[in-house]
Amino acid sequence: MPGRFRLFDFGKTQYEIWGVVRSVQIIPTDIPDEIRVKVGVAFTGARPPSSYLRDSDTLYDLKPVLRKLSLWDLRELPRRAGHFARFADERHKIAVKVILRVIDEHGRIAELVSAETQDISESGMAVITKLSSECPKYVLITTQNERLPLLAKVRGAHALEDTDSLRMHLEFISGKWLI
């Protein structure tokens, strides 16, 4: 980052700054099995919050005003509350066939599998599927009619008894499911 845009570390070659991800958007690409994302970040400072150092799963939001030196100030979100509250979303017991594109650690599509939803809300879903690879951290979800893909984080997974199927709990991070 050019020096005129920096608020600290003016003499360093690299400018390391912490931030909060505010948006994630999938960008179409012509390269097969590759995805690209556009990430919107609000810069928050030279150091992470102390609560992040204690627990890296802590969720944050921005305070509504810029702080001194034009960096955003953070506020810690209470667990299971605020924008990320899943219990507030109405869950719909709907069985929809979806396609999961498993994303590997290099950001490439490693596997394409079909799945069926057990329940859906605006911010996530539970699906039943079979994977030939290990449980991923992220998947792209589309419907059979190639609905705009949503990027989702795998929040949990467990094997179903007496089957080789897996129940995966997914949280959408690039948008909401329109019900």
Can you walk through the features of this model?
- With 179 residues, this protein is mainly β.
- The chain folds into two domains: 13-84, no CATH class; 97-172, predicted glycosyltransferase like domains (Thrombin, subunit H, Beta Barrel), CATH 2.40.10.220.
- It contains one helix and ten strands, in the order E-E-H-E-E-E-E-E-E-E-E.
- The protein has one helix at 50-54, and strands spanning 18-27, 36-45, 60-66, 72-76, 97-103, 109-120, 124-129, 138-143, 150-159, 166-172.
- It has a six-stranded antiparallel barrel. A two-stranded antiparallel sheet has the order 1-2.
- Strand 3 and strand 4 (72-76) form a beta hairpin.
- The longest helix has 5 residues, at 50-54.
- It starts with 17 loop residues before the first strand and ends in a 7-residue tail after the last strand.
- The mean pLDDT is 85.
List keywords for this structure.
six-stranded antiparallel β-barrel, elongated, 179 residues, two-stranded antiparallel sheet, 3% helix, Thrombin, subunit H, mainly beta
